[in-house]
C-alpha cells in the first residue's frame, strides 16, 4: 500500500515538474539576480542556455557553474540597447545550439530616484534604452527565429511599476508600462503562430538591484508588502519556468504580478 502511494506521488511529482529537455533558452541579464537564477533553473530542467549580459566576468561565472553541473551553456556578451548586438546574440545562439525555443527577456536597470522635473536627460535615455528598447529588440529578433523554427515561449520582465504609478521613478515606470504594452501587443500578433508571450510584474525581490537600498528603506518596503517580506529569485524562477513550459500552453498576453499582494 505504502509503495502504491509512493508510486502515485512520484507520478504526480513528475506530472508537475516542468521538463525542458532539448529546448534552447536565451536569458538576458543572466549575470545577476533573476536572470542568473532563471538561467540556472532552466539548465537544471534540461534546457541548453545562452546567457546574455553586459557583465563579462559574472556572466562567464554563471555559465561555468552550469557547465560544472554537467549542463550545456554559453555566455554571449551583449549590450541589449544595441540592435546589432541583440541580432548577434540570437544568431550566435542558433549557430551554437541550432534553434531558440525559450526566451527570458529580462535585462534591466532601475536607475536612481528623482522627481520628474529633476530627472537627468541621460537617466531618461539610459532607462528607456535598456528596459524598453532592449526588450523590443529582443522580441523582434527572437520572434523572427521562432517563426522560422515553428514556435516558442517568451517571458518579459515588467514590474509592479509597469502596472501602477511609482513616484520618483518616472523613466523606470514608463519603461515598464511599455514592457506591458509590448507583451500584450506581440502576444496578440503571434498567438496563432505558436509563440506565447507573457510578462511577470515583480514587486520587491531580493536581488543585487534592491540590496543596495539602505536598510531603513528596506524595512519600510517590507512593512508595505501584504505578505510582509520581499520575494526571492527562487519564487521568480518558479513562475518564469512555468510560463515558459508547456504546462502554460493556454496562457499568452498575461502580465502576472509576483509581489506578495502589493498590487492587489
Ligand atoms: N529586484 C526587484 O525588486 C525588481 C522588481 C521589479 C522588476 N525588476 C526587474 O527585473 C529585471 C532583473 O532585475 P534584477 O533585480 O535581477 O537586477 P540585477 O541588477 O541583479 O540584474 C540585472 C542584470 O542585467 C544586466 N544588464 C543591465 N543593463 C544591461 C544591458 N544594457 N545589456 C545587457 N545586460 C544588462 C546587468 O549586468 C545585470 O546582470 C530588471 O528588468 C528589473 O527592472 C526587478
From TrEMBL:
Any Pfam family the entry gives: adh_short_C2
Keyword Electron transport belongs to the record: no
Superkingdom of the source species: Bacteria
Name this protein carries in UniProt: SDR family oxidoreductase
Family affiliation: Belongs to the short-chain dehydrogenases/reductases (SDR) family.
Keywords: Oxidoreductase
InterPro entries: NAD(P)-bd_dom_sf (IPR036291), SDR_fam (IPR002347)
Signal peptide: none
Taxonomic lineage of the native organism: Bacteria, Bacillati, Bacillota, Bacilli, Bacillales
Amino acid at each position: 500500500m505504502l509503495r502504491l502511494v509512493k508510486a502515485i506521488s512520484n507520478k504526480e511529482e513528475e506530472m508537475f515538474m516542468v521538463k525542458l529537455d532539448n529546448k534552447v533558452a536565451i536569458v538576458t541579464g543572466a549575470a545577476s539576480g533573476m536572470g542568473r537564477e532563471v538561467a540556472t533553473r532552466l539548465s537544471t530542467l534540461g534546457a541548453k542556455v545562452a546567457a546574455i549580459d553586459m557583465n563579462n566576468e559574472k556572466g562567464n561565472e554563471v555559465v561555468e557553474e552550469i557547465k560544472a553541473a554537467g549542463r550545456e551553456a554559453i555566455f554571449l556578451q551583449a549590450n541589449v540597447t544595441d540592435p546589432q548586438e541583440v541580432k548577434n546574440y540570437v544568431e550566435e545562439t542558433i549557430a551554437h545550439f541550432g534553434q531558440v525555443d525559450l526566451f527570458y527577456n529580462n535585462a534591466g536597470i532601475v536607475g536612481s530616484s528623482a522627481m520628474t522635473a529633476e530627472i537627468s536627460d541621460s537617466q531618461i535615455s539610459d532607462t528607456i534604452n535598456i528596459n524598453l528598447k532592449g526588450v523590443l529588440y529582443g522580441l523582434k529578433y527572437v520572434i523572427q527565429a521562432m517563426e522560422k523554427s515553428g514556435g516558442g515561449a517568451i517571458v518579459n520582465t515588467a514590474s509592479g511599476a509597469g502596472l501602477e504609478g511609482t513616484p520618483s521613478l518616472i523613466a523606470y515606470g514608463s519603461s515598464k508600462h511599455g514592457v506591458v504594452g509590448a507583451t500584450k501587443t506581440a502576444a496578440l500578433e503571434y498567438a496563432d503562430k505558436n509563440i506565447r508571450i507573457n510578462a511577470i510584474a515583480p514587486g520587491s525581490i531580493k536581488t543585487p538591484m534592491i540590496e543596495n537600498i539602505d536598510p531603513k528603506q528596506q524595512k519600510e518596503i517590507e512593512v508595505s508588502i501584504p505578505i510582509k517580506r520581499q520575494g526571492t529569485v527562487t519564487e521568480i524562477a518558479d513562475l518564469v519556468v512555468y510560463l515558459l513550459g508547456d504546462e502554460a500552453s493556454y496562457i499568452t498576453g498575461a502580465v502576472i504580478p509576483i509581489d506578495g499582494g502589493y498590487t492587489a
